[in-house]
Amino acid sequence: MDSQKRGNHLRGFFSDSTSFNILMDMLFIKGKYKSALEALIEMKNQDVTFSKDTYVLAFAICYKLNSPESFKICTTLGEEALIKGDVLSRRASCFAVALALKQNQVAKAMSFFSQIMKPESITCMNLNIIIHIHSNMLETLIEILKDAAEGNLSNFVKKQEFSEEVLAAVREKVKDIPNLRARFEEIYEKLHVSGRVTTLTLDAMLCHTPRDRTSHLVLLNKRTASRRTSQPLSQSLLAE
């Protein structure tokens, strides 16, 4: 009943993607992921056209909820985007990959990852390592880390960094395979000495906001004031 009332309240007032995006962004920042999902579903019910930012928000919300239902919604939206010819941004795809991995849907994670046009970002590199762990492609995984330690990866990556959390997962995976474990520890030492190991978690990488980002996009770190009222969005958009 509450959801229906909320939907009726939003109908007409939020009639374009920008309004919905700002609302979902604000709810996301506050950790109200279920409410953000309700807004997303209402947006879909109103047949409001999704922008690139909408897909980022939608997949980020689904990722945070991390449930079979949210995974299904994410997958469905991804499939619909392909049918419509909408190109998902790298950031949106990264959230989809991460959610699929959390739900142990490795094939789907690989499918989402394959759609990323330029997978040279630090987040993509770390997601790729997790995919290899889940797929038991350990020899290839070690080679990827070796190339990074020796500086042989793509020049498009400004700084090749790996999350300590991700490397710990690699260590756990190869601990009972003496040859791979020895190779990994040697590579890990090189990565660490060369400053290629970061304490940032994969979640922190996914939720990082670029410094030059000025639009109303997912995960804004600072409150944005409404142009009309100079009030915080939480007051101006959700005022009773």
List the defining traits of the structure above.
240 residues; two-stranded parallel ribbon; 2 strands; 62% helix
Q: What would your notes on this structure say?
A:
The longest helix is centred in the first third of the chain and has 17 residues, at 68-84. The chain is built from 13 helices and 2 strands. The protein has 240 residues and is mostly helical. The protein starts with a helix and ends with a helix. The radius of gyration is 20 Å and the shape is elongated.
Order of helices and strands: HHHHHHHHHEHHEHH
What structural class do you assign from the helix and strand content?
mainly alpha
Number of helices: 13
Characterize the largest beta sheet: strand count, sense, and whether it forms a barrel. 2 strands, parallel
What does the radius of gyration come to? 20 Å
- Uncertain residue ranges: 211-240
Numbering strands along the chain, what is their spatial order in the largest sheet?
Answer: 1-2
- Cα(first) to Cα(last) distance is 18 Å
Share in helix: 55-70%
- Residue fraction in strands: under 5%
The number of E-state strands comes to: 2
Shape estimate = elongated
What integer is the average pLDDT? 84
